[in-house]
Amino acid sequence: MSRLFPRCDYLTTLILSVAGILAAVVAVGEAASPKPSSASEPVLEFKVESPKEPVSLQVANSRRFIIPFKIRNISDQKVIVWPFLDLELIGPDGKVVHRALNRGRFGFSAGSLIESISFYPVAPGETHEIRINLNLYEYDLMALTGWRIEERGTYTLKMRYEFDRKAAKKELGKGCKDLDNARKPWNRAIEAKKVVSIKLKVK
């Protein structure tokens, strides 16, 4: 492994227990989808990997520099997960670092926005990974975005993972004729909310 790109081997593990989040889907001629064996069992495990060693300005601003945010299904049922993760970068001075890129994701999309979103199915024991690149970040809900790190020091990266079904349908569901169809992925996805921060040292 090149010294320029240090191995991300520090794990910050968060376990999120979500109660009552696998709704049965009923269709004509089909049985209802299986429910989790216990509503109290953990469903998702989150792991955030950050560099153990400081990184250079060159590395921090490179599109090869990746911070993996992993969502693992630790239940015994297949689940659907929200594909977006909100980020906020705080500089060494404690102030928010403004984005250097902020290009609208949806543009002049025809039809409803919620139908254009690719939700992800995750089988039991499998992991969905959101790859955080600060120079070009592709997992913001509303924009293709990114940051330019200009100064050395310790940064704080705040990550907010949240799927609120009611809010998502209200904000993104305009024009969708099947908005309340129980078989649609937004009506089957895990509702979850978690906020976590990591430190990023830039030398």
Give me some keywords for this one.
mainly beta; four-stranded antiparallel sheet; disordered N terminus; single chain; 2 helices; 203 residues; three-stranded antiparallel sheet; 33% strand; globular
Please provide a written account of the structure:
The relative contact order is 0.24. This protein has 203 residues and is mainly beta. The chain has a 4-stranded antiparallel β-sheet with strand order 1-2-3-8, with no helix packed on it. A 3-stranded antiparallel β-sheet has the order 5-10-11. Strands 4-7 form a two-stranded antiparallel sheet. The model is unreliable at 1-39 (pLDDT under 50). It is 6% helix and 33% strand. The chain has one domain (10-202).
Number of domains: 1
Terminal Cα separation, in Å? 19 Å
The outline comes out as globular
The tally of strands reads 11
Q: What fraction strand?
A: 25-35%
Rg measurement, Å: 19 Å
Considering DSSP H and I runs of 4 or more, what fraction of the residues is helical?
Answer: under 10%
Task: Let me know the average pLDDT.
Answer: 82
In spatial order, strands of the major sheet run: 1-2-3-8
Q: What are the segments in which pLDDT stays under 50 over at least 5 consecutive residues?
A: 1-39
The main sheet comes to:
4 strands, antiparallel
SSE topology string: EEHEEEEEEEEHE
SS summary, helix count: 2
Class by alpha and beta content: mainly beta
